[in-house]
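check these tokens.
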Amino acid sequence: MRLILAASFANLPFGTIYAFSVFLKSMESMLSLTRSEMGIVFGLSTVMFATGMNIAPVIYKRFSTGTILIISGISGAIGLILASQAQGFVSLIFGYSIFFGLAGGIAFTTAQQFVNIVPTKHRGLVNGYVVSLYPLGAMIGAPLLGWSVAEMGLRQTLFNLAAVVLISALVAAWLTGLRTYIPRNIPQSKASMYGHDDESAPFLGMIQWRLFFKIASVFFLAASAGLMVMSQAAGIVQSYGGGSQFSIGATSFITGMIASARVSGGWLMDRFSLRQVMGAAHVWSLSGAVMLSLWPSPYTALIALTMVGMGYGFVSGSAAGGIAMHWPATQFGLVTSRLYIGWCIAAICLPFLAGWLFDLTNSYRSSIWIAAVVNVVGVALATRLPNKHSQHTVTEN
């Protein structure tokens, strides 16, 4: 329980990256930026986040968990302070995207790895909870950040958030007892559970790489649609006629539902197959995109964007649960970090495209249709996933 609580403190403040849409108008006004440039800021922050995730497996075997969390907290706080003093596009990217994004990725994978070292019968649920911490942080942070921007201004808000990131990291480090959670090696002979779909020989450092690429393709498509919603939710709702306060409330509600979907996705993996959970998630997301395309209004936008985001949440939670079930615990951080390379590519693609199309048309309608097509492809690819619920959670000797 201490480790789960530590993961919560480490990740919740970094989860405000998913409430980025709350900053859109203030940053655009303060720094004279376009919506597509703001898409680049968010997209690059996810690139650095994925970079941090892939750095984490290299360093969490060499340094104590507490040390890594403290360094991540300090780096993230420095990035937000630099962003609070930004005078233009480049300085904003340097602080928010590079420092803050990189620190968040390192903390995220480190937390996932030390949680998975602890044996549990509900591995899917636990991992669903851990990946839900980012949207949960956005749900809590969106109304607070929106209020703070209105009352104190954007620069002071970012400075205050830096203090929260640092304090939370210190608490998380204390909860881990500054211990080192070093995974033990597991015989690769324990890796095979699906016959010809799995490979025991490592590829890119991973075993079972064929199954990995199947999961990654479905995850990438869900993330493309979901991150478009999470990065620009407030702007999308406003484009359909929603007011400023309504859009901030919508952002908080949407990210909260994504958090619940991630927990549910992990919980469902304890009961159903990857094909069933991920396929149904894309169908759910597709229904939301079609609904908004056919009946555009601010309230429909709230419901539809929630459904699109939840579809991504279900896939994210089930992916984490599936990795925990089908790979040895020692490889969890490595496999997850590889998976999130696709996540950062997704964050660059559709969110940037949505911002660019909005600059051209002053509308998000074409972006919603693109999200629908993405989900159709996701449903098709989900049929390639294993259609059985594994009863073989990989264990250690």
Notes: Residues 224 and 346 are 4 Å apart (CA to CA). The two ends are 23 Å apart (CA to CA). The chain has a mean pLDDT of 81. The longest helix spans residues 209-239.
